[in-house]
Amino acid sequence: MENYNFEAEYNSLMKRRREELDELIKRGILPYAYSYDVDSYSSDIKQNYEKYEGKDVKVAGRIMALRRMGKATFAHIQDSRGRIQIYLKKDELGEMYDVFKLLDIGDIIGVAGFVFKTKTGEISVHAKSYQLLSKSLRPIPIAKEVIDENGNKIVYDQFADKELRYRQRYVDLIVNPEVKDVFIKRAQIITQIRKYLDENGLIEVETPILQPLYGGAAARPFITHHNALDIDLYLRIADELYLKRLIVGGFDGVYEISKDFRNEGMDKTHNPEFTMLELYVAYKDYEWMMDFVEKMVVELCNKVFGTTQFVIEGKEINFNPPWKRVSMVDKLLEVTGIDVLKASYDELVKALKERGVEPKGGESKGKLIDELFEITIQASLIQPTFVIDYPLELSPLAKKHRSKEGLVERFEGFVLGREICNAFSELNDPIDQRKRFEEQAKMREEGDEEAHQIDEDFIRALEYGMPPTAGLGVGIDRLVMLLTNQPSIRDVILFPQMKPEK
Q1: What is the pLDDT of residues 353-370, one digit of tens each?
Q2: Is 451 helix (H, G, I), strand (E, B) or coil?
Q3: How many domains does the chain have?
Q4: Where is the binding site, in residues?
Q5: Mean pLDDT on 236-264
Q6: Are the C-beta atoms of residues 231 and 252 closer than 8 Å to each other?
Q7: What residue numbers does the annotated binding site for Mg(2+) cover?
Q8: Which pLDDT tens digit goes with each residue over 154-198?
Q9: What CATH number is attached to the domain comprising 22?
Q10: 169: Cα separation from own chain's centroid
Q11: Which residues contact 396 (CB under 8 A, 6 or more apart)?
Q12: Contact indicator for 341, 366 with CB cutoff of 8 Å
């Protein structure tokens, strides 16, 4: 076919659907119904045919395929659980059969009829009546194949472009219904995490999203303005400091599954709005928390997926404990030959440059160590691994290591080279905390935009006394990516942040 003009055809289809809408209204057909009493679903009927054979059912869904044969029509409708064929006969439906000629792929209908098998053995619903529930004015992108003058097959209208699928998730879910399975699994993962924490005695709480000071992580915030108070507020970058205030107040264990916001770039593992689990447990330390994380992940995997062994990106991953534990400093010494605790700032800069990374300038020594770790070690952490005992400069809210000078009691969990959790023995010494905040403030003055602010109220809370506490943060989106084998964070967020449409 020469000079095929997809856009012209698309516009003509839009025009035709508007004309069909006008004709339906003229015939007294309500194009947008108020309700329909659905009592059966496609998957139930197909999986339990013996139970449904000959029985009357009411199904509803979107028309996804149409085959008109004069006095009979076959169509496939798609409901929330799958697809099923419907069969309509002119002799039985009378005038409403002619009305069906005004319907298109994409229209939503309700069908009342009995269940049977066609001559080809396909389980179907023989329509006794049907009702238009919603007229679709925009054609659904069902792939169209066209052969050009050279005999090449060209596919038009295939809804495969990733950017378009993220932007128009509603269309993505219609034409790629398997996408829904990822989000069902996401919901089950969050439900199971919540159940596990509840059963272990933690209390779910809510803390402010709008905060006068942001803290609990190293990140730039989003800023907004409160008109009545005439003050700037920040969308939270973490929940940590408010949850610790609750431990001060007497809670033994609290958690929050929340939306956090960081004003940063977007890539396969970063979205500016994301979901975090944070939890804090009094009288525990990071050693206890490692065991807790292992048990939580194992139970989660078994309850939601029925296994603790996965094939992710072609690699076999086993979440069964014990997970490997490696010291960050020792591993860096082993891989790079550099003792990062003794190395000078200039030596760390040189080490990064030798490996193709040009520091921007103004970073803290801790940031340089973190970058060196990322480019030399992180990608090699394939099986579940706890990287433990971080340099003090990297963790202004973690407790100093009880036996190793210059380190803090912190771990991060990695799988397939991706960080999935971060945890501390929490700093509960208010004098030390003030000193750390002041050091962070100096870093801010020297150009580190992500350094922590001084939070006087949080220090005041610590001065009343916080018991020894273990804290944990888990990136829910990254965990879901991992367990559902998705390549991008945007594949597990229903409506990810996108650049504005042109």
Answers
A1: 999 999 887 777 888 999
A2: coil
A3: 2
A4: 412, 419
A5: 97
A6: no
A7: 412, 419
A8: 655 567 888 999 999 999 999 999 999 999 999 999 999 999 999
A9: 2.40.50.140
A10: 13
A11: 427, 436, 437, 439, 440, 452
A12: no
